[in-house]
Design a protein that fits this description.
Structural class: mainly alpha
Oligomer: single chain
Distance between the termini: 29 Å
Number of helices: 3
Strand content: under 5%
Helix content: over 70%
Shape: elongated
Length: 76
Amino acid sequence: MHGLYDGVARALFAAWQAYALAHGGPRLLWLYLGTEVAFGVMQLLPWVRRRTRPVTGGPSVGWARQTVVDRTEEQT
């Protein structure tokens, strides 16, 4: 969940940097903008994949979800 929040914060910060560049900000800002966008994409990509993946009946978040499903089935 923290990765999602940080990814959204990076997107907002990158938008602010793009705004600054559009209004005459220093060229060095391009380096930071590229870095923020790259890290933001890396942080948000797993969330986008999980939201757009079709439901197949299997675990949706890896081994942690599978463990919870197994324990629930054992209890019933």
